[in-house]
Amino acid sequence: MFPNLKTAEVSSNTMLGAGVHTVKAKSFEEKTTAKGLPYVEIICEDSSGAKTYLKFNGVDGNTSEAAAKVRTEIFKKFLTTAGATTFDTVPTSVKSMLNKPFQIVLTEREYWMNDKDTGVPTVRKAFDYKTSAPVGNPLTFNESMNKPLVGEDLVSFQEAYNAHMLANSGTKESTVKSDLPF
Questions:
Q1: H or E segment at 125?
Q2: Which residues lie below 8 Å from residue 154, measured CB to CB, with a gap of 6+?
Q3: Rounded to a whole number, what is the distance in angstroms from the first to the last CA of the chain?
Q4: Which of 29, 71, 136, 159 has its Cβ near the most Cβ atoms within 10 Å?
Q5: SS3 for 60?
Q6: d(CA 98, CA 26)
Q7: Helix (H) or strand (E) holding 72
Q8: Strands 101-114 and 121-134: what pairing?
Q9: How far apart are CA 16 and CA 57, in angstroms?
Q10: What does the alpha-carbon distance between residue 156 and residue 162 come to, in Å, rounded to a whole number?
């Protein structure tokens, strides 16, 4: 049923959390969202094998000039601080920085969604790239950089959760008469 179970290697599935981390880019992939927006996903690992997936949105026909400029500058800063040596194309730029150590700051962002298996509204966490620097350059992380679920988003989650729980509580009014006086 499981060939070579004795010799199979188990890989680390540990993910990096919020904070400052020294990592190396291990691989990358150019992708497109369901709405057609191109992006680059770069998989980074620290020395223990813990991973993070950095996502940099690209530019499409619907992107404003201002947004295109900001996205390009953010990506170029990342490439530069990560040790890229060429900037001709995205693949050659990213390939030129692979396996070179650099530092990143990740922040935690809470969001809510309906669980795909149970349908229950659930709060999830994502870890977003904030900035980077060459190894040895000071980077700071403060808890205040994290974005917990608050305000209208928190109220929306609570309302959706309460509605789901009420609709799925399984309690129905009993039609059986009770001997209790109330």
A1: strand 121-134
A2: none
A3: 61
A4: 71
A5: coil
A6: 6
A7: helix 65-81
A8: antiparallel
A9: 21
A10: 10
Encoded tokens for 77:
């800063």
Question: At residue 13, does pLDDT exceed 90?
Answer: no
**pLDDT tens digit sequence for 94-107:** 999 999 999 999 99
- pLDDT-based confidence at residue 9 (cuts at 50, 70, 90): confident
The tokens for 79 are: 């490439």
Nearest Cα neighbor of 81 from 116, 113, 31, 44 is: 44
110: β partners? 125
| Assigned token pair, 85 | 């040596």
Q: Collapse the DSSP code of 93 into the 3-class scheme (helix H, G, I; strand E, B; otherwise coil) and give the result.
A: helix
- Position 172 scores a pLDDT of 43
Residue 171: pLDDT above 60? no
The distance of Cα 32 from the centroid of its chain, to the nearest Å, equals 16
